[in-house]
């Protein structure tokens, strides 16, 4: 499986504010780039923290990109994946509508009634890990479902864990020209953080788009 991590952050490295509400950092060019990146993938993954904060849809906006997907025999939209140990995703979430298929990676800890509600809402549940989703075996289960190219769209906890597990091949970061601040605000990689053996990145390109900068890295 090829994994591309993508996020937008403020000049001070924040993904959103301490309120954990969605902050628009990208401009139209970057959102169009993100849309094309989604369209190039078999699935788009976020953590339950992002679902609860943003209620994202994670589909492809541009009709031309949707047509191109169908023309090459792919579903109109990539599948959506939520990493959600205890199946806390609200059944009414936009990510569970019938515009695209949705997988929920749950842990043994997920209560049966929550699981049943998600199945009822049309989600495909994949169990991996006990009190936290095991991303390595979760990604293997997704690969067995035919997902070869996966986009990880955050948030900070998930991004740290996919780096920690050595699962990321590419990273693209849009650096927006604003300061959000706040020690409680989510950053590009939260979790416990690295104290040594920091993941090495090779800078592949730097491009000015909108009023910010897009950096693309290969993960070594
Ligand atoms: N600017 C951007 O590009 C961007 C992108 C995405 C999100 N965001 C922002 O980021 C914030 C959400 O980020 P977040 O860090 O709070 O949430 P998150 O990373 O989306 O989700 C984290 C949650 O995932 C679950 N999880 C299960 N297994 C995990 C594992 N192995 N590793 C890590 N997490 C695991 C945990 O909840 P359980 O233990 O209950 O399962 C954890 O609390 C929101 O404010 C959103 O607006 C910004
Ligand atoms: N590229 C990017 N720039 C931003 O300024 C921003 N706030 C996000 N945030 C990512 C997060 O995952 C959002 O929840 C989804 O971008 C919403 O996705 P929809 O439009 O509902 O499909 N992503």
UniProtKB/TrEMBL annotation:
Keyword Heme: no
Pathway involvement of the protein, from the record: Cofactor biosynthesis; riboflavin biosynthesis
Sample GO molecular function, one term: 5-amino-6-(5-phosphoribosylamino)uracil reductase activity
Gene Ontology annotations of biological process type: riboflavin biosynthetic process
Keywords of the record: NADP, Oxidoreductase, Riboflavin biosynthesis
Annotated signal peptide: none
Segments forming domain Bacterial bifunctional deaminase-reductase C-terminal: 2-214
Family matches, as InterPro entries: DHFR-like_dom_sf, Rib_reduct_arc, RibD_C, RibDG_C, Riboflavin_Biosynth_HTPR
Catalytic activity: 2,5-diamino-6-(1-D-ribitylamino)pyrimidin-4(3H)-one 5'-phosphate + NADP(+) = 2,5-diamino-6-(1-D-ribosylamino)pyrimidin-4(3H)-one 5'-phosphate + NADPH + H(+); 2,5-diamino-6-(1-D-ribitylamino)pyrimidin-4(3H)-one 5'-phosphate + NAD(+) = 2,5-diamino-6-(1-D-ribosylamino)pyrimidin-4(3H)-one 5'-phosphate + NADH + H(+)
Enzyme Commission number(s) from the entry: 1.1.1.302
Pfam families documented for this protein: RibD_C
Family: Belongs to the HTP reductase family.
Subunit record text: Homodimer.
Xref: NCBIfam families: rib_reduct_arch, ribD_Cterm
Protein name in the entry: 2,5-diamino-6-(ribosylamino)-4(3H)-pyrimidinone 5'-phosphate reductase
Species this chain originates from: Halococcus hamelinensis 100A6
